[in-house]
Predict the 3D structure of the following.
Amino acid sequence: MLAVHCDVTGVDRDEAAVEIARARVPGGRFDVAAMPPIPMEDASFECAVSFETLEHIDHDEQFVAELRRVVAPGGRVLVSSPNRAVTSPNDARPSNPYHVREYLLPELVSLLSDAGFDRIDVYFQRQERRRAPEYLAGAVIARVPRLCQPGRWWDRLGHGSSEVGRWSSEVTHPMYWVLECQ
């Protein structure tokens, strides 16, 4: 296994989430803040990661512009978000009550492109293969959130694998889009 050193900084609007991050990564810096704006200096980071947050933020265009602002030239931004075609098909509002919106792939690419990212590579997480046990696990986790612990079998069953693959047209209904932007 290759050992890599990096400085970790995180921001979340939920104080409990920040406390968990501080406990899990004692050497990291974690702050509580509502976003946008991101409370960091311009070009502060080589990489910014925003997994499963964009759909919760009212001002998505401003947030994506802030991600671009805090990443140094040549840096990367990783963004993931549910695929609306799978998670809320045919619905005017997302089925998840905590989501402000969900995106189809062209909408997500356009949002990032409009923010000034020149290169956007598309990946996916979890192909759509829902079976009754997966639906049951997802329903239980939604009602008992403390069961949602990354790496546990119940969480993997309800949310799927954390493995990410390069998207191609053969993958028709991934659960989540993952985009790498430069």
